[in-house]
Amino acid sequence: MLVKVLVKRHFKMEKLDEVIALLKKFRSDALDQPGYVCGETLIADGEPEKLMVISTWQSIEDWNNWKASKTRIENDAMLKIFQEQPTEYTVYRLGSSSN
Predict the structure, then answer these.
(1) What average pLDDT does the structure give for the chain?
(2) Would residue 95 be called left, alpha or beta, if left means φ above 0 and alpha means ψ between -120 and 50 degrees?
(3) 12 within 8 A of 95, measured Cβ to Cβ
(4) Rounded to two decimals, what is the model's pTM?
(5) Residue 35, SS3?
C-alpha cells in the first residue's frame, strides 16, 4: 500500500541556500531507492525557514529501509546542523483501509 511521508523541518534563516542544495541532493539520492515514487518540497508561506518534504513510497517497508540507510543517515546529519528544531516525521497510508 502506498504511503506518504511528511517530514517537517525548521531551519536557520541565514542557511536556506545551503539547505535547498542539500534537499536537492537528498531527493536525487532517494530516486535510486527501491519503492520511491515521488517527492516535493513545500516552503511555508511567509516563513521560508519552515520546510516540509512530502515523499511517496510503494510501502512502509520501502520508507523504513530508506530511513535506515547509510546514505539517508549521512544526508540527514548534514541537514541537522542547519536546523532550529528537531525533525518531525508523520507517515500516512493512502486509502481508507486500516490494514
Answers:
(1) 93
(2) left
(3) no
(4) 0.88
(5) coil
